[in-house]
Amino acid sequence: MEIETRPDIMSMNQEELTNFTLSLGEAKFRAGQLYKWMHAGADFDEMTNLPKTFRNKLAATADYRLPKIERKLVSKKDGTIKYLFGLTDGECVESVLMKYEYGSSLCVSSQAGCRMGCRFCASTLSGRVRNLTPSEILGQVAVASRDSGERIRSIVMMGIGEPLDNYENVLRFLRLVGDENGLGIGMRRISLSTCGIVPNIRRLADEGVPVTLSVSLHAYDDEKRKALMPIAYKYSIEELLGACRYYFEKTGRRVSFEYTLISGENDSVEDAASLANILRKYMKVPSHVNLIMLNEVDETGLKTVDRAAAKRFEEELKRRGQNATIRRRLGSDIDASCGQLRLSKLAETESGI
Ligand code: SAH
Predict the structure, then answer these.
(1) How close is the Cα of 271 to the center of ligand 1, in Å?
(2) Average per-residue pLDDT in the chain?
(3) Domain match, 236 and 100 both
(4) Pocket lining: 337 vs ligand 1, CB cutoff 6 Å
(5) pTM > 0.85
(6) Residue 295 CA to chain centroid, in angstroms?
């Protein structure tokens, strides 16, 4: 038996959607209207400027299903909202909406689960189930914006999954979300975080989508990094920083490095000194270090550092001429770091709650 696959219209760019619209016997300008509605997270019933006949045809032939809000947690401290989104096959992912003075930022997921195996991370504990489609990534933005009533000014791809392990779909998402006829979120307001898939960093540098690249480093040498991140067996820090320099040269965008401080693993002042050294040696161009205090995940047994240790680390980097900041934690009362809500949902499903 052949399984019917309907065209995923929210993953289409304007040209593809126009062709699809024409194939249904509708006028070309209807595609533009439909595109806007979908990017705003509307369902067919709400698309009131489209003829009912067109909407019926779409409902009968196309695949258009937005992520469904399964759970929503709102921080009493700072208004951060965490969404658990259900996807059409029962999978779920998380998005986090953070409110800043200058507008809101949404952290989105790119895969259901993750196969990168980083030791400290909740998202990878149950492996990778599948890649998200472009529409599933865009749908998180559309639904979160609509539900919260917030205008989303910036996006961080730091949710569940490794974006450069889902390259094609993520690239298409970036082009869709940046499109002026849709949400128009410019590449300068998008950060993409990667554990460091070197060939894909180089590829991304050449695509003409100059997002801010954030690279998860977490250690200053290969042996230490291997103990935390399996990807370090595949690419050395030297190769990784070479690709980051290439990214800077091609896009003109300063690269950020994420460095999660884990007690007794990578948090000493000597670690900070060595980190500043390797960045100077291999990166050569200006970069920024984002220090993250480990968000403890019970299953990993790893411990976080105190504020004073983080401060000492930051100061040592700065003393050596390396830009650095300690990342502010939002939504600490709702476990806003990604991966944990999905994990607890999986545990509930398994135990039949
Ligand atoms: N796959 C991407 C996105 C991951 S999440 C990547 O690896 O970069 C964004 C950042 O949070 C990464 O730097 C990741 O290493 C870090 N991170 C993951 N789990 C964490 C935890 N429990 N505490 C602190 N930071 C964590």
Answers:
(1) 19
(2) 93
(3) yes
(4) yes
(5) yes
(6) 17
